[in-house]
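For consistency, the fold was encoded as tokens, as this record shows:
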Amino acid sequence: MKNIKIWHNPKCSKSRNTLELLNEKGVEVEIVKYLDTPPNKEELKEMLKMLNISARELMRTKEDIYKELNLKDENSEEKLIDAMVENPKLIERPIVIKNGKAAIGRPIENIIDLLES
């Protein structure tokens, strides 16, 4: 399998476990450390389409920055996307992309399903 990418945070155990799963399956994977090289607005919108979810569903709502920015009361998709672009820590992880489809590795079974599709 080729053309697989992971939006990865090495400090996150779920992200490390997902990368380990990909390696165990012999998958060639491109690692994107999205905290170091955050996605731009267009990339984030494309990711939301691949995941088929709303911006809020991609957000880590328990992060302090989520509360600091009062995002729970924000209803604008554009503003939520802007918040993730400016604060990539808000983006749920890990995300694996394969052939124009994506899955969030919470639970890791989502990634197994993606690999088998």
